[in-house]
Amino acid sequence: MTQQESTSALSRPLLAAVGLAVLLAIGVATLGLVLGTGNQTQDVPGRTGPLALVSIDAPDAGSPTCVSLVEKLPVGLPSGKDMLPRRELASPAPPAAVAWGDAEHDPVVLRCGMPRPSELSATSQLRVISDVQWLQLPGSGSSTWVIVDRDAYVALTVPDDAGTGPLQDISTTVRDLLPKQPVKTAP
């Protein structure tokens, strides 16, 4: 056997092995692209596990009104065609605060017992939903809606993509539970 025949005989199995490995890698990559990740969701920070809420001034959070409301809030809130389950809050959780959300949706957060919003005036445009008056405080990516015609101010922060379901469900609960009060436009 000549040296050329020996080299050629060794090269064929080596080339075949390398070619097979390359084809296998291309096949796996193609399969991954075609199948994707299926219905698996990626963990987005803040969308899974206990939700940490910053404590903010809520002087009436311990009031009977807020205690009663928090006990009667729904376990789920509609968001578009989805239902958001109640989220566990990280300790220490602010009093009279509740959140809903899941791995695919930013949380909806309710806080009861807030101070009167400084934006509330005699000329404020209020939205009435299920006989409950709300003041909208627009934000970046979400809006905070404040109930202004009940014994306690209730703030509901809703992501812009959540639709009107959260406002409608909370309005119905508040309407059925808390007596209507005149709107106090002055401090």
Automatic annotation (TrEMBL):
Pfam families: DUF3515 (PF12028). The chain crosses the membrane at residues 14-35. Keywords: Membrane, Transmembrane, Transmembrane helix. This is DUF3515 domain-containing protein.
